[in-house]
Amino acid sequence: MKEHAMGLPFETVLGLLAGSLTTLAFLPQVIRTWRTRSTADISLGMFLVLCAGIALWFVYGVLNGDWPVIIANGLTFLLAATILGFKLRHG
């Protein structure tokens, strides 16, 4: 395995970068939803399925000790669940 930054394997660095980007992709929607309290254009069914899938990826990461998967999906779940919470609360 090739080492990269801070002595981490390249695959770990790649996983952390990919997870960071997909997690950060949720941030603008969370901020907008928080500010406007509007979720009219957000699909409840899609966010329920998405949150379930993210939770399963998190569990998969835990079972396999895969830190990039654990970190990325843990944080992404918090952001997606925040949007889901607003959707359930504000319709």
TrEMBL record:
Q: What is the protein's major site of localization?
A: membrane
- What UniProt keywords are attached to this protein's entry? Membrane, Transmembrane, Transmembrane helix
- GO cellular component: a single term: membrane
- The regions listed as transmembrane in this protein's record are 12-31, 43-63, 69-88
Membrane topology annotation: Multi-pass membrane protein
**One GO MF term, please?**
sugar transmembrane transporter activity
Mind telling me which Pfam families this protein's record contains? PQ-loop (PF04193)
Q: Where does the record place it?
A: Membrane
The record's InterPro entries line, in alphabetical order, gives: PQ-loop_rpt, SemiSWEET
The UniProt entry, under NCBIfam families, shows: SemiSWEET_2
Q: What is this protein called?
A: Membrane protein
Taxonomic source organism = Thalassospira mesophila
